[in-house]
Amino acid sequence: MAATSIANLRNDGRRYNEFRKINFKINNIKNTSSDGSVYYEQGNNKIIVSIIGPKVTAKRNANKKKCNVKCEYSTSPFAALGYRRSGNRDKTSISEANTIKNIFEGVILTNLLPSSEINIFINILQSDGGALCSSINAVSLALIHAGIPCLDFVIATTCCNIANINDLPQQDIQDGAENNVTASVNSNNDHFSSTSKFNLVDLNYTEINHGYPQIEVAILPNLKNKICFLRMANRVDMQIFQSMLHTAKNSCNAIQQLFKTKLLENHRNILQNQQQQQKHENNPTTDDQIMA
After folding, report:
1. Are 160 and 16 in contact (CB under 8 A)?
2. pLDDT tens digit string along 7-41?
3. Which secondary-structure segment (H or E) carries 286?
4. How far is residue 185 from each of residues 167, 198, 257, measured CA to CA in Å?
5. What is the CA angle 105-106-108, rounded to 5?
6. pTM to 2 decimals?
7. Is the pLDDT of residue 87 over 70?
8. Which of 62, 83, 248, 257 is deepest in the core (most CB within 10 A)?
9. pLDDT in tens, 140-197
10. What angle do CA 152, 154, 160 make, to 5 degrees?
11. What is the chain's Cα-based Rg?
């Protein structure tokens, strides 16, 4: 089964550089113990993240110079396709929790919160590929809602290269014509560029299982696209790797702009509701006066 159709569209109708539809709701968990929460959807990925802290710890082994970050990553038994072991103590969940913990230990300004602890709870309600990257995006939003000081957004995505040996340009060395070699090199640069149609971003479950070389990357967009996480399971040519990395960075920057727009709209709505409540308290209606 091909990853793209004749019209260069993927199996879910997206273009090669198009990420899945993203929706999120801030302060989704109405719980007094939760300091920040978000319900996050990216395509068919549905995730709930809750932040508790920073809170002062009375433990003897507490670090008096910086904050301690803990993470718990759990996947619902009905979330993923196929057989899956339930619970949050399997090897995959522990590995993903340690990965997220290590990422945000370097992003949170822990030196400003000494002798304290931050607990991150992640629950995967539905998974359709790229659950780790979606979780990283959700945790970043939840930390913003909790008011925890961070260096920057942490935006993550996946990217793969679907080109095979027949798709890549071949240099004709038998003729020895310089024009052919030059044209082939230029065409080769187009195939390995960051806008190559062979690079797919934000992979779903079907695309991940195709077996193409893929990477998972998380960056800090406002810090010159600094990479804070990168994972790759295949060996590829350095040009293909750089092409996938550039495509992933461009997708992360687009996701960050979407987050900024939606967060500003959310905060604007909160301020408008607060102003309306204050006006209502300062200027009671005639019905309230009659009842009084």
Report:
1. no
2. 678 888 888 889 999 999 988 777 667 888 999 99
3. helix 286-291
4. 14, 17, 34
5. 65
6. 0.84
7. no
8. 248
9. 999 999 999 999 999 999 999 888 655 555 444 344 444 443 443 444 444 555 557 7
10. 145
11. 23
**Identity at 250, one-letter amino acid code:** N
Other CB atoms closer than 10 Å to residue 126's CB: what's the count? Answer: 17
Residue-range domains of the chain with CATH? 22-163+198-265 (3.30.230.70)
Q: Which two tokens stand for residue 195?
A: 């806008």
Q: Residue 24: beta bridge partners?
A: 40
Question: By C-alpha distance, which of 133, 123, 66, 125 is closest to 99?
Answer: 133
DSSP state, residue 251 = H
At residue 122, the 3 state secondary structure works out as: strand
Read off the amino acid at residue 80: A
Mean pLDDT of 48-65: 83
